[in-house]
Amino acid sequence: MQMLLSGAEVATRDRFDRARIEAQARTPWGRALSALPVRWFHAKLEGAIRIPREGAALLVGNHAFAGIDGMVLGMLVLRETGRVVRFLGERHLWDVPGFRAIITALGAVPGEPEAAVKLLQGGDLVAVYPGGVDDSFKPSTEKYRLQWKDRAGFARVAMRARVPILPVAGLGIDEMYTVVGRERWVGRSVMGSSRYDVPIAFGAFGTLIPRRAPQAYVVLPPVDTSGDAASPADVERVRKATFEAIEGVLATAR
After folding, report:
1. Cα–Cα distance, 29 to 55 (Å, whole number)
2. More confident residue, 4 or 134
3. 196 contacts: CB under 8 Å, gap ≥ 6
4. Residue 1 has pLDDT above 60, yes or no
5. Quick check: 125 and 85 in contact, CB under 8 A?
6. What is the pTM of this model?
7. Phi-psi region of 228 (alpha: psi -120 to 50; beta: other; left: phi over 0)
8. Which one of 90, 124, 231, 233 is least enclosed by Cβ atoms within 10 Å?
9. DSSP reduced 3-state for 81
10. Residue 63 contacts residue 70 (beta carbons within 8 Å)
11. H-helix or E-strand containing 31?
12. Do the Cβ atoms of 165 and 223 come closer than 8 Å?
C-alpha cells in the first residue's frame, strides 16, 4: 500500500518544476491554454501590480463551490505576472482516488503549516483559503460571506515565514452555481464528517456546468505580518486585518 505523505513531506520532496511551467506559459501554446478559463468567465485581475514579480507572498482569499475560482485565479496571476501560484488544498482531497495525482501535478500541496512555510521560504507565491471546505460548500444564502470562524493558521504561517499577506477578494465566483442544500451520505461515509456533505448545486441550465458569470479578483494592499507568531495578540491583529480587507470588498457583492 502506498503511504500518504504529509504536506510537509510533499513540500520537502517537491518535484514541481516552477521555472519550467513559467517558461511554458510564455509560449503561444501556454498563453492560449491559460486564456481559456479567463475568457470563459470574462475574468480579470485587479491590483496585479501588488503581486511581487519575485520573492514570496501569501495570497489569502474567499472560495467558491468546486474550487474553480482557484484555477481561474491561478491562470490570471500566471498571465499577468508570469508566476505560478502554489495552492494549499484541503488535505482530505489527497485521499480521493485518482484526484491526488492531478492536484499534485498542478502544484498543489496539502494545506498544513509546515508545507506552507517551506514553500514560502523557498520564494514561492502561495495561496490559501482559510474557509476551506466550509467556504467552498456554503449555501447560496451565505454567498460572499467568509466562513473562516476564528481560523488564524494562515496568519501564523505568514508571520513565521516573514512574508506579506495579499488579501484577494473574488467577486462573481458565487454566481457560478446555486447551492440549495447538502446531501447527507457521501461526505460522512467517504470523509467521515458532515463537514464534507456534498452540496446540491445547479449551474448553467440546471446542470453541473458552471455559469459564465463575470469574475473579478481584487488584490488588496499587503497586510503587515510583523510580530511574534507565538503571540495570540499579534496573530489576531494579522488575521483581523486580512479578514476585514476581504470582507469589505465582498460586502459590495451581496
Report:
1. 26
2. 134
3. 92, 133, 137, 186, 187, 188, 190
4. no
5. yes
6. 0.89
7. beta
8. 233
9. helix
10. yes
11. helix 28-40
12. yes
Helix (H, G, I), strand (E, B) or coil at 136: helix
The angle formed by the CA atoms of residues 226, 230 and 234, to the nearest 5 degrees, is 45
> N- to C-terminal Cα distance for the chain?
47
What is the DSSP secondary structure assignment for residue 252, as one 8-state letter?
Answer: G
Q: How do beta strands 85-89 and 109-110 pair? A: parallel
| Cell numbers for 169 | 477578494
HSE at residue 201, side-chain half, CA atoms within 13 A, is: 24
18-76 residue pLDDT tens: 778 788 888 888 888 888 899 999 999 999 999 999 999 999 999 999 889 999 999 99
Q: Enumerate the β-bridge partners of residue 86.
A: 126
What is the rounded distance in angstroms from the CA atom of residue 211 to the CA atom of residue 213?
A: 6
Angle between helices 18-25 and 28-40 (to 10 degrees): 80
What pLDDT score does 171 carry? 98
Predicted confidence (pLDDT) per residue in 73-108, tens digit: 999 999 999 999 999 988 777 776 667 777 777 778
Residue 203 DSSP class: -
Task: Give residue-wise pLDDT tens across range 174-208.
Answer: 999 999 999 988 777 777 778 888 899 999 999 99
